[in-house]
Write a structure and sequence with these properties.
Length: 551
Amino acid sequence: MRRISTMIAAALLAGGCMTSVEEGPGRGEAPPDCDPELASALAAWADAGFAGAVAIDGNGMDCRVALGNADESTPNTDDTVFGIGSVSKGFTAAAILDLAQDGALSLGDKAGALLPGLSGPAADVTVEQLLLHTSGLEGEHGRDHQPLDRDEAIAAISGLASAFEPGSDFLYSNAGYSLLALIVDETTGSYRDYLAEEILVLDGERFGGFWDGEPAAPGPRAVGTVDGAPSTENGDFAGPFWAMEGNGDLAMTAGQLADWMKALFEGEVVDPAAVEVLTSTRFDYGDGSAEIPGWVSVGPDMFGTPLITASGGGGDTGHNAVAVWLPELEMSIAVTSNSEEVIAGDLVEAIGPALAAGEPIPMPEGHAEADPEELQSRVGTYTLESGGSYAVTAGEDGLEVAAEGADAVAAMFASADFTVEDVAAHEDLVLALLNGETEAGREEIEAVEGDIGEIEAVELAGTAEEQGELRTYVRFTTAGAELLGWYALDERGGIGGVMLDASPPAFTLVPTGEGEYRRDLVGVGDGVRVVFAEGLMTVTGPAGTAEARLS
């Protein structure tokens, strides 16, 4: 489970109040105790593609807002359960700090001394280094929803290489947090039981549970969206679960996440002394922010008040989550989402600055009412001179565009967090990986060829930002077939996510009027603008302008 951009997660700030939203098709549930002043703006975000929930707890507020649909026909409500992805790491960290407070372990203990059978570089890192992602452990120990038992997880983590001297640098590690979960499991007898009985429970009330397996998060579940289609990972994975234990395994409602987070930082989940350790144990980035166990601490310079945040998403459940604690206001804010058009981080980024200034939240830019006849008139396949193409279909509120070919994908690129130069660097690293220039690359090629047969050629097929990360698409050619896949790399060029047999990257265009459309409604300036005229589709964005003609 990868987390979405820290800067997106950090953008949500108090100073003003969230509200309910009018009930209606696709607009979810409207609890009566939320201030209604912002209702129309929040409803517009639902209309623009956000589906999920928002919850605020503290500073005199206890507000719950549900928006959009949980599936094709059922609205999201305050009871809808979402996978929270890497926000789960904050719960794992709480379990470790709770055990440390009880004297069962120390943050200075080496992992190998706490977990029999662990070897390799992982055995020599400390608990604190695992908590802060400074262990140097490089690579993944298992892919999401890959059956992986306890012994297999220990063996896989033992085989991970070290990117640097432990404690000297930062490298985000899902495997490191699964190792922490294994330590909890070894120390208490059961990782899942300890979380369920000691960390997820307060005053007899259960805060969610696990997305897959038991004890499961109770309640109706949102169906996520992955590459434009409903996710098939909806909580029925039979396990064993150690590929995601400790790093991205939990699920709950947005309200439960907001309430638990407030209870954590107010010393009700773990002892106040453990909370002090949590907030004071840090790796400073040097920009006013710091990694703390399970969270990121951000100073007041950017938004006027300090905050602590965590975010998760990018996994195959198709959910995203952002959690923010505002210590000076004693307020927690949680946003969860199950759509791709506007994910939790997008909504956070769009409304955060306005909330910080006490101003009305902005409406989505350039959003006009869709005319079904006009949408239908744009349907077809549009081909670039380079051979790339756009397959355009009509949706309920806009156009859906599947891009084939590197040039076609590149023209559609726009991002608040990544530049065109970032894309080029990412593509270079992916090609280096798949050309076998590193040991990790050679291992990946061997694994891919085990699935699809001997690779004869690898061709770039473009890069898109999806689920808060860059995904570079590649086309594999074998003796008998071609296969499209994508790779997302971590900060050091290791594999952060991969999918073989992927669908082409898809984009949603919303009408802005008079034959013009726009994608990327939030946080990206002008984003990408598309004009249809006389059988020509003209795409203009940060990467330049491309023209495709109706075939």
